[in-house]
Every structure is written in C-alpha cells, then in structure tokens.
C-alpha cells in the first residue's frame, strides 16, 4: 500500500475517533498533564522493575543520591551534597538534612544505608541487585548526616549507579527475617521525588500530585495522570480530542502525519538505543561455520546499507553507527574501523573466504520488522541465503541462551546511561550468552575498564576493546534510534540528549 495513503487513512481514522470522544479534557485549564503509555504499569517501585516506562515514572516519584546532567554527563548533588574517596575502596557521603519522604518523615542516613544494603543482599531479589552487589560490600552510618560505602573492588561507576539505579526507601520497608515483603512499595509508593502518588489502579491509571515538600526545584505542572492505553490508534485519538497531552514511542510515519495537524505537535529527539547484528564468531552454533571467518564477518558489515536504514526505516535523528556503542556514550571511540556500504567489496571478501556462491544463514530478529527485512535483503543481494526468523523477544532470548542462534538483530538502550560500560559488559562479558565472539581477551578488557578508577585510562581501555570488536567484525553495528513524541500544542516538552523523557520538566506554553 502507498505510504502516503497509509498516513492519510491513519490520520482520518484518528480524526474520526477524536470527534466521537468528546470535548477536550487535558491541558493547562486544570493544570493536569495526561500521558499515555502502552505498557501496563503494574509496579511503582523501580527497585523491582526495569522497563523504560518505569524509568520515566521513577524520575517523577523518586530522588537519588546524585543526578546526572543529561547534557554534560556530569554528576550533580541531589540528596547527597558531597562525597570524598577516602581510598579506592571507601567512599564517604554527606547528605542533605531537609529531604522528606512522601509521608512527611525525614530521610536519614539509616534509610540510605538500609536501602543499599538491602538491594545488595541476594535475598532482596531486586532488579538492581546485579548492579549494586557487583561493587557494594557494606553501607554504614557514620554521623547524623553522613555515611560510608565500603566497596568490594575498584569500581569507577559507583556515582553513576547512585544516580540512576537505586531508589531510596525508609529503613525496614521490605521487612526482615520471615516477614520479607518485596512488594511493599509496588502499589503504595512512599518515596522522596518531585511527585507523590495520589491514586493507582495497576494496569489502568496512575495519578501523581506535585510534592510541595520536595527539597529540589518543584515541577511547574501540578498533576500528572498516566493512563495505560495499549492501542496506538486510541492514544492518537485521545490526543487529538484533548484527552491526552503526551505520547511516546510513536511510529515515525504516524508521528509525522499527525504532527501536521493543528491538534498535535511532533517532537523527534535522540535516543541512546542502538541497533546491531551479533555474529557467531565463536562458532557456538557451528565450530567450522562461515561466521567463524573474519572475512565473512567483514563482508556482512560491507553488505549492509546502514545509512539508508537509519534515514528511511528509523528516521528522525537516527544515524548510521560503526562502533559497538552509542556515539554519545563515554568511551565510545569513533576512530575504530569503518565498513562502508559496498556490496561488491562484500562479494569479493566472501569469495576470498571460500564462499563465492554465498552460504545459507539464519538471522533472528524480534523488533523493527522493516529493518529486519532490509538486513535480510542486503545480505541476500551479496549471495547469502538468509532465513529470517522473526520471533518474540522471549523466544530469541531462550534460543540465544541455548546457543542456537548464528546471528541476530538486537537493540540496546543502555538504561539511558551515556557510558560504554552500559552496553559493553552485558554484551562482551565472558559469562553472557549475548557474547558470541568467543574472545576471552576482549572480555578481560571490558571487565578491566570497570575496575579502573582513572577515567582517561577507562577511555583507553574502551578504545582498545571497541577497536578489537570492529577489526574482528564481531558485530555489524547498524544505527542509533530516534525518540518520537506526539504532544499537545499547549505543552512545552524539552528533549534531552540522552533520550530519556523527563515529564517533570514539562511546562504549559
């Protein structure tokens, strides 16, 4: 079907549904920002969740020890006013004395120490445990507004984890002994952030009210309502009828189409998510398979028209990438080997590798079907007989864990963290099934970067590691992603360079 026709039909359908849904409800008139999310919101405690939607909500309801400036990637004081490295394994923090939980009680160093020690304890089963337990030995109170963190080993990303991953809870929140309650904050969150929970119907609606006792700069908008609306068409209709002010994860075509109407504004900004192909260089699926040959892997890189994919299939601010990280991330060296789109070069490399007539290859994918099909088409064009297996993410994860996947198209958002560590370790750690390189020396390099406090040294290590990945073509890097939003024309919504939506920064025009 013609793309312009699709756009016209979608817009017409949304306009018709908008007309049927009644008069405007959202907006500055009642100082209530109404947002739509497709993913069900079932748990308000980010210590026990992971998805992007929960990160967005945690930014609203929680405050952390430090905060990260999205423009400079520098750490700023938040609940912690200062810190001092006593030595490589000892970190002292000083806290504000005016931070209140949403129930009116004052946050203490005991609360902070409890939270960190609990999350680091394997009994917590927290989604943040794998991050914190990696480095924390113990947190202990040292004074009325001070505490000390003792580390297991040198770990240069402590402040990053304190800024991004751990949400502070009152001492004793999750119980103890046989009375552990990991869901204590799932539905009735008591936190310290700029908004507090007014009401919550899991999977339906969350109402947040501005926290007038918030220690930091208070948000401009008084109330935020987050509604679970799974269908993108219904979201758009609600936006155009005035029932919704903000939608994210909007397909580019629809965002551009509806953004041309007077009832919606299309915003497009950067996203730290990147797309890539992982190749079985280690021979896990076939010890003597074609992908164990570096010439074949380089040929695959040359075969992919990543600039066209970025521009036409992802769109917005998406760009082709050539390193195994996002260009905005700390340590993402852009001087590594590039493989320009060159089908003839790809064919020549395949012939040199002993595959002049190509070979059959299974490629798995779970998202962005158009991009998946473009990858398959480009590889087919140079003689590789691709069997594209488009499956659900759970199926891909299971098959990858069983070492049944020779190549797959994956993506990674780094949790909004602009540091190469956020993508490197999980994909190249020796124990990760995502690591299909079979290169133990590379895994050692990646690990050593996280055991080095010297930031310049970390850059050097990541440069070496990324250079090795590129030279050996363990990946075929594809493109960065673009974040597309549809918002009410009355809403001013700033976009940050790390791609994380911060609704607390929204204002009315």
Query: Can you tell me the CATH architecture of the largest domain?
Result: Roll
Q: What is the CATH class name of the largest domain? A: Alpha Beta
Which band does the percent of strand residues land in? 15-25%
Helix content: 25-40%
CATH homologous superfamily name of the largest domain? Dipeptide-binding Protein, Domain 3
Q: How many domains?
A: 3
Structural class by SSE content? alpha+beta
Major sheet description: 10 strands, mixed
Mean pLDDT across residues: 92
* CATH topology grouping of the largest domain: Dipeptide-binding Protein, domain 3
- Rough shape? globular
> Uncertain runs with pLDDT below 50, 5 residues or more?
1-24
Q: Specify the number of helices.
A: 15
Terminal-residue CA separation = 38 Å
Number of beta-strand segments: 18
Radius of gyration: 24 Å
Describe this structure in words.
With 509 residues, this protein is an alpha+beta fold. The chain folds into 3 domains: 3-42 and 186-269 and 483-508, D-Maltodextrin-Binding Protein, domain 2 (3-Layer(aba) Sandwich), CATH 3.40.190; 66-179, Dipeptide-binding Protein, Domain 1 (Dipeptide-binding Protein, domain 1, Alpha-Beta Complex), CATH 3.90.76.10; 271-482, Dipeptide-binding Protein, domain 3. 30% of the residues lie in helices and 22% in strands. The protein has helices spanning 3-20, 52-61, 109-120, 129-132, 158-164, 232-241, 252-258, 294-303, 306-314, 343-352, 369-381, 393-401, 421-428, 440-449, 455-472, and strands at 32-37, 66-68, 75-77, 80-87, 90-95, 136-143, 146-151, 195-201, 205-210, 223-228, 246-248, 265-279, 360-365, 385-390, 407-412, 475-487, 491-492, 507-508. Residues 1-24 have low confidence and may be disordered. This is ABC transporter substrate-binding protein. GO terms for molecular function: peptide transmembrane transporter activity. Belongs to the bacterial solute-binding protein 5 family. Keywords: Signal.
């Amino acid at each position: 079907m013609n793309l312009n026709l699709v756009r016209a039909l979608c817009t017409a359908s949304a306009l018709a549904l908008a007309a049927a849904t009644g008069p405007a409800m959202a907006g500055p008139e009642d100082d209530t920002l109404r947002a739509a999310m497709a993913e069900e919101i079932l748990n308000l405690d980010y210590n026990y969740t992971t998805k992007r939607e929960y990160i967005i909500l945690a930014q609203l309801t929680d405050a952390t020890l430090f905060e990260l400036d999205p423009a400079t990637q520098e750490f700023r004081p938040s609940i912690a006013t200062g810190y001092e490295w006593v030595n490589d394994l000892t970190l002292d923090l000083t806290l504000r004395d005016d931070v209140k939980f949403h129930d009116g009680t004052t946050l203490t160093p005991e609360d902070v120490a409890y939270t960190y020690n609990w999350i680091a304890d394997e009994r917590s089963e927290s989604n943040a445990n794998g991050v914190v337990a990696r480095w924390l030995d113990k947190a202990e109170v040292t004074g009325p507004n001070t505490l000390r963190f003792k580390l297991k080993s040198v770990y240069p990303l402590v402040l990053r984890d304190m800024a991004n991953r751990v949400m502070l809870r009152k001492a004793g929140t999750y119980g103890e002994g046989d009375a552990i309650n990991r869901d204590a904050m799932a539905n009735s969150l008591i936190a310290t952030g700029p908004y507090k929970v007014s009401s919550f119907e899991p999977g339906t609606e969350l109402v947040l009210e501005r926290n007038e006792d918030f220690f930091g700069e208070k948000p401009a908008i008084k109330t935020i309502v987050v509604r679970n609306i799974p269908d993108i068409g219904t979201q758009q209709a609600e936006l155009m009828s005035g029932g919704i002010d903000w939608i994210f994860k909007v397909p580019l075509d629809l965002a551009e189409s509806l953004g041309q109407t007077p009832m919606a504004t299309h915003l497009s900004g950067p996203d730290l998510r990147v797309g890539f192909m992982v190749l079985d260089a280690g021979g896990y699926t076939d010890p003597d398979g074609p992908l164990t040959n570096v010439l074949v892997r380089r040929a695959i890189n040359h075969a992919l028209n990543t600039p066209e994919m970025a521009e036409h299939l992802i769109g917005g601010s998406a760009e082709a990438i050539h390193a195994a990280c996002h260009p905005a991330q700390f340590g993402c060296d852009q001087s590594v080997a590039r493989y320009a789109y060159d089908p003839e070069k790809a064919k020549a490399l395949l012939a040199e590798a002993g595959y002049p007539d190509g070979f059959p290859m299974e490629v798995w994918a779970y998202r962005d079907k158009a991009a998946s099909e473009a990858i398959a088409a480009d590889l087919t064009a140079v003689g590789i007989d691709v069997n594209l297996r488009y499956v659900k993410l759970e199926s891909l994860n299971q098959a990858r864990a069983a070492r049944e996947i020779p190549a797959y198209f994956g993506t990674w958002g780094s949790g909004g963290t602009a540091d190469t560590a956020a993508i490197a370790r999980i994909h190249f750690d020796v124990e990760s099934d995502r690591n299909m390189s079979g290169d133990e020396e590379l895994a050692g390099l990646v690990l050593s970067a996280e055991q080095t406090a010297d930031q310049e040294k970390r850059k050097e290590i990541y440069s070496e590691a990324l250079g090795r990945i590129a030279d050996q073509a363990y990946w075929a890097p594809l493109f960065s992603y673009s974040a597309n939003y549809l918002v009410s024309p009355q809403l001013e919504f700033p976009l940050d360079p790390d791609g994380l939506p911060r609704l607390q920064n929204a204002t009315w025009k």
